[in-house]
């Protein structure tokens, strides 16, 4: 039920802090240790490489998951768009583990890959919001997202839930492998949930920013480096799906290798700046586009902000920034769509789960 909300997309965006708290509860034992099936731990330890298979927003969550698994658990990870993988399979490692990321658990492109790799005898773990879904039933193992039903076609809370569960999987695997980590994930996720709540309380600001930067735009570019780049591709997808404004996410350094030709007077550029090691670099990319007339909105993280930034995110642990930086991008997409009078919960040409290849 959407209750007092005008749209499910807004309700589901608002639910994200509660989803994160729910995930903390479900993946924690009575001694506040991470809790995962022994069989999943074993499969993670055995794998020499992980292949994440997904589509759309789930693919974007997979890009974040790759960084978490590689940086924290020291396992090589490849992320693949399901529809490409099934017709153009890369060389596989000796002991691959496949992770299927899917909110619905019904995406036909992902299922086609699952069928193929099962025939080849490889193990599969599905991470899904729908227990009992096809991808869950047909995989060897399942991790649940505990996000509650997601009704809006544009995915919001499933994205953040997928990242949180992948963070748990990464930290748990690190612990099992004896890798020392310098932070407590449960504590950091609790900080993330609070930060998300601060953000979902700032809807008026996001509504104004959408009006100032996007409502009359034909196109928009999202730029970021490193972890921010992964969120930029998701921010762009959200915006195009619900507002129909043509939008793309770019690595900060890549825009000048061609796409900068599209920048005109007033073209909106949304830049994320949450990573210390690339803060200087992304800011010089912002300068490059501003000097060509772009209308730049910088969204930075507390501690890295500058006076001219449009919006400052509460501080969270650096590896978890995608969980908070995506929230304003979801809200910007939502308000831009409203201002353009779009059918927010049911964008044209889209279906909630794509069950044809
Ligand atoms: C975007 C969106 C789609 C889905 C994609 C995969 O907002 O909803 O891009 O993310 O169709 O769906 P699942 O995760 O159900 O496999």
TrEMBL record:
Give the EC class as a word. transferase
Question: What is the active site of this protein?
Answer: 352
> Which reaction equation describes what this protein catalyses?
D-fructose 6-phosphate + L-glutamine = D-glucosamine 6-phosphate + L-glutamate
Q: Which UniProt keywords apply?
A: Aminotransferase, Cytoplasm, Glutamine amidotransferase, Repeat, Transferase
Q: Where is the SIS domain?
A: 40-179, 209-347
Task: Give GO MF terms, alphabetically.
Answer: carbohydrate derivative binding; glutamine-fructose-6-phosphate transaminase (isomerizing) activity
Subcellular location per UniProt equals: Cytoplasm
Q: Name one GO biological process term.
A: protein N-linked glycosylation
Q: Name one GO cellular component term.
A: cytosol
Q: What is its EC number?
A: 2.6.1.16
Quaternary structure annotation from Swiss-Prot or TrEMBL: Homodimer.
Its biological purpose: Catalyzes the first step in hexosamine metabolism, converting fructose-6P into glucosamine-6P using glutamine as a nitrogen source.
Q: What is this protein called?
A: Glutamine--fructose-6-phosphate aminotransferase [isomerizing]
């Amino acid at each position: 039920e959407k209750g007092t909300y005008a749209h499910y997309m807004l309700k589901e965006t608002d639910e994200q802090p509660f989803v994160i708290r729910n995930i903390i509860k479900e993946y924690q034992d009575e001694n506040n240790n991470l809790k995962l099936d022994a069989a999943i731990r074993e499969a993670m330890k055995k794998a020499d490489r992980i292949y994440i298979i997904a589509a759309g927003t789930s693919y974007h969550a997979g890009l974040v998951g790759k960084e978490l698994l590689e940086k924290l658990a020291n396992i090589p990870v490849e992320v693949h768009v399901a529809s490409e993988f099934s017709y153009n399979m890369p060389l596989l490692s000796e002991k691959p583990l496949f992770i299927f990321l899917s909110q619905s658990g019904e995406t036909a492109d992902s299922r086609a890959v699952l069928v193929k790799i099962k025939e080849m005898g490889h193990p599969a773990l599905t991470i899904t919001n729908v227990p009992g879904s096809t991808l869950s039933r047909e995989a060897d193992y399942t991790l649940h997202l505990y996000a509650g039903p997601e009704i809006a076609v544009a995915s919001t809370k499933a994205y953040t839930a997928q990242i949180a569960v992948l963070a748990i999987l990464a930290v748990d695997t690190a612990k099992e492998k004896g890798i020392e980590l310098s932070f407590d994930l449960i504590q950091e996720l609790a900080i993330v949930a609070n930060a998300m709540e601060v953000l979902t309380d700032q809807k008026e600001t996001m509504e104004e920013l959408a009006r100032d930067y996007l409502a009359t735009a034909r196109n928009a570019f999202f730029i970021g480096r490193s972890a921010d780049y992964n969120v930029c591709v998701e921010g762009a997808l959200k915006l195009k799906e619900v507002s129909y404004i043509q939008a793309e996410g770019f690595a900060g350094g890549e825009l000048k290798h061609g796409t900068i030709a599209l920048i005109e007077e007033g073209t909106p550029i949304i830049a994320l700046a949450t990573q210390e090691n690339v803060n200087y670099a992304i800011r010089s990319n912002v300068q490059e586009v501003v000097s060509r007339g772009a209308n730049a909105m910088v969204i930075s993280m507390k501690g890295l902000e500058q006076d001219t930034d449009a919006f400052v995110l509460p501080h969270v642990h650096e590896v978890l920034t995608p969980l908070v930086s995506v929230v304003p991008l979801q809200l910007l997409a939502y308000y831009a769509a409203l201002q353009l009078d779009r059918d927010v919960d049911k964008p044209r040409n889209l279906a909630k789960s794509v069950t044809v290849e």
